Amino acid sequence: MEKKSKETKQDAKAAPSGSAAVECLPAPAPLTPAEIEDLKERAAKADENWDRFVRQSADFENYKKRAARERLEAATFANESLLRKLIPTLDAFEKAIAAAGADAGAQSLREGIVMVASQLKSALAEAGLEEIDATDKMFDPNSHQALSQQETAEVPEGRVLQQIRKGYKFRNRLLRPAGVIVAKKPAL
Q: Which one of 3.30.1490.20, 3.40.50.11440, 2.170.120.40, 2.30.22.10 gives the CATH number of domain 130-188?
């Protein structure tokens, strides 16, 4: 053991002071053309995998955004189906009010129908349902449905003369277009 410790002391004395012993590594052997081709193939495959990873990451982010948007839209328009089913009930109330208004003996019945109809309308308005008022407006195919045209010189062409059926929107989404009669220039 003393022999080994003497050798290490001598090696330390042989090294210049203040510098550590540096081991010399053999120089790397030059790459063969086959090895270079293999490295190029591996690099191309790595680039392809990186591109695929980046695309899939972007696709996943887009999916998360789309899913969040769809969840929000589903919550916003959850009542749409129910409101579509209640629109004919509103029409029935309008018809009942018109029918009760013709009979003088049915005044209290008319008042009751009007009261119930107004309660229903206010509850539906709170839920986001809004009526489309087409009377005396320009015809808009996005919210009106032309049921017929009527010739007249009193109103400009393309203007709504009469609203036959009320239209409804739910949070700016059309549920039912307003049924209207549209003005038309008289034939000469």
A: 2.30.22.10
